[in-house]
Amino acid sequence: MRMDNKLRAEVLIEALPYIRNYSGKILLVKYGGSAMTDENLKMAVMGDLVLLSLIGVKVVLVHGGGPEITDMLGRLGKKTEFVDGLRVTDAETADVVQMVLAGKVNKSLVNFIQNLGGRAIGLSGADGGLINARQLDPRLGYVGEIESLNVQPVLDVLEMGYIPVVSTVGCDSEGNVYNINADTAAARIAGMLKAESFINMTDTPGLLADAKDESTLISKIFVSDAQRMINQGRLSGGMIPKVGCCIEAIRRGVKKVFVIDGRVPHSILIETLTDEGMGTMFVSGENI
């Protein structure tokens, strides 16, 4: 028991400089994938966010919910169609997206945080004009691209001492609702907030040199090299937009950007409060 207590103390001492570095600064987490559908992982992620909030970090949570949307559409007898990795969204599907993301998923996460001793307020892109959107491609229907952001509602919620939990539903001036890619929205919001760190949780250890070999994890990469990997076709599937969003976040002024494995319990704490860290860190500049 004495050794256990000593180890606990050593862990806390190791975390102290990281706590000092993040205290009072904004950490934005993009949350989705298997960590969102596994209840035990969800509890671990929300616990990490509550702990960080309690030690003075200004935590912002931006979430997706693709599997939940697909499940609800299936219950309603609607088939899901994708074009270039994006969900074709007719008017009825847009209603479902808003219901699932801004309703079921968002409020579930808020409830998780509060049951773990944290304080949270749910927001959607429609609240306070947070995400002003326009149609991305007529073929996709109500799939939107971000026209402008108003992050004041997020700042107001942070100022009150709550964790903003943001669902990425956008609106236009005519009241149309759009489904917005959560990775894209998270990167843009992180940039507007001038966040200290942007953490993108995914279903792999991070950025891999060989997508089929998890031992080829790239622990640190310059944005120029990451862009080169995209241009050379060395990335595939969902990793392309994730890496693109990480590059954009860096270029928009976010100081630290990470892709981490959301399947690992407490991966956020491992990344932010330990010497080892995990996943891939994106940094600005050229690898000369």
Task: Give the structural class.
Answer: alpha/beta
Range of helix content: 40-55%
Got a strand count?
14
**Alpha-carbon Rg, integer:** 19 Å
**Major sheet size, sense and barrel closure:** 8 strands, mixed
Explain what you see:
By secondary structure, this protein is an alpha/beta fold. Helices cover 43% and strands 22% of the residues. It has ten helices and 14 strands. It has an eight-stranded mixed β-sheet with strand order 5-8-2-1-11-13-14-12, sandwiched between helices. Helix 7 (182-193) runs parallel beside helix 9 (239-251) and helix 8 packs antiparallel against helix 9 (239-251). The protein is globular, with a radius of gyration of 19 Å. It starts with a helix and ends in a 5-residue tail after the last strand. The model has no long low-confidence stretch (mean pLDDT 89).
In short:
This protein has helices spanning 2-22, 34-37, 39-54, 66-75, 91-115, 152-159, 182-193, 223-231, 239-251, 267-273; strands at residues 26-31, 58-63, 82-83, 86-87, 120-124, 131-135, 143-149, 163-167, 169-171, 177-180, 197-202, 220-222, 256-261, 280-283. It has 288 residues and is of the alpha/beta class. The strands form 3 sheets. It has an 8-stranded mixed sheet, sandwiched between helices. Strands 6-7-10-9 form a 4-stranded mixed sheet.
